[in-house]
Amino acid sequence: MADLDTFRRETRAWLEANCPPEMRRPMTSDEDTFWGGRNAKFSSEPQRVWFERMRDKGWTVPHWPREYGGGGLDGEEAKIVRQEMAAIGARAPITSFGISMLGPALLKYGTDAQKREHLPKITAGLIRWCQGYSEPNAGSDLASLQTRAESDGDDYIINGQKIWTSYANYADWIFCLVRTDPTAKKHDGISFILFDMTSEGVSTKPILLISGRSPFCETFFDNVRVPKANVLGTVNRGWDVAKYLLQHERAMISGMGERGGSRPLGQVAAGSVGSDAQGKLDDALLRAEIANFDVDEAALAAAAERMVDLAKAGQGHPAFSSAMKYYGTELNKRRHELLMSSGGIDALEWESERSHEGARPRAWLRTKANSIEGGTSEVMLGIVAKRILDLPGA
């Protein structure tokens, strides 16, 4: 415990000395997020400084091994880093599907060569990844996917289509599910493969959403040649890798239910509604709704810590991430409903030079997809009923 106390003091001092003041403020736009990648650009000098200092420290992914660019910290130390960053409002230095989804799968299923090739580039923000899972006829029933990979010597030739591929038009590489044995049962005969998005035959088409923005894409593969050495895990056993990765994806998505670096709802609402003589939000009903939300937000944060602690102790349940995904996404939808309610008529402003105002209805509309992407809320509840509650007939 004394060693952890020392580590906490040293971590707090390092963060205070190295996190620029600008990186301790709530994010106001998508440009405040650094995704990394071959074509990445920093939105500001403080963003560059913060990322590079964390990268050099190994704290873009503190708990990964040092040989892959991580910090080599144990679970308790990594938890302290998260807590101390939260204490000063420090932003994550990078947002990355490579960190939150692919990385854990690589650590578990990757060959030594695959780990050494990809993990250091992920921690250093050199490659931006996207996920090739869903297809037009394979959404919730993902195992019915039809994108095919046919053997040709040392390569596979891939043909098919993916949909809802988040940020595929900006990604450098894709981790993708393909069918390598069309004669096998649908959960068998699937392989998990990695390849460069600049490969000949890969194309993307953005999907415009009701919010007027386009995080999703259709992704097409037309005779794409990929080395067989890029298969992660065992050929025809990709479903094992896919399920493991989904646990991490759903845990990542659940995090949107936590406030992170944004301002508390009460402060946001006070800016529009005002406060009474006692300094309370001048709308009793809205004040009660926000108070209820704050309690549920705190409960989600506590559950997230519990999930990490259980996993560290080897007691984690593989379906717990589904419960977290459901709760976190539904909570985020509630947050944006309250933001709209607290903004009054100003919150309906769509086109505005004041981007923080014009962004509010767009963000609210975008959250409608939260309970669909990464597995619908109905599917998540079904998994909880079957795998955790063991309900009859589930």
UniProtKB/TrEMBL annotation:
Cofactor(s) for this UniProt protein: FAD
All residue ranges annotated as the Acyl-CoA dehydrogenase/oxidase C-terminal domain in the record: 236-389
Keywords assigned: FAD, Flavoprotein, Oxidoreductase
Keyword Flavoprotein: yes
Annotated Acyl-CoA dehydrogenase/oxidase N-terminal domain residues: 6-125
Domain of life: Bacteria
Residue stretches making up the Acyl-CoA oxidase/dehydrogenase middle domain: 130-224
InterPro entries cross-referenced by the UniProt entry: Acyl-CoA_Oxase/DH_mid-dom, Acyl-CoA_Oxase/DH_mid-dom_sf, AcylCo_DH-like_C, AcylCo_DH/oxidase_C, AcylCoA_DH/ox_N, AcylCoA_DH/ox_N_sf, AcylCoA_DH/oxidase_NM_dom_sf, Mycobact_Acyl-CoA_DH
Signal sequence coordinates: none
Similarity field: Belongs to the acyl-CoA dehydrogenase family.
Protein name listed in UniProt: Acyl-CoA dehydrogenase
Source organism of the structure: Bradyrhizobium aeschynomenes
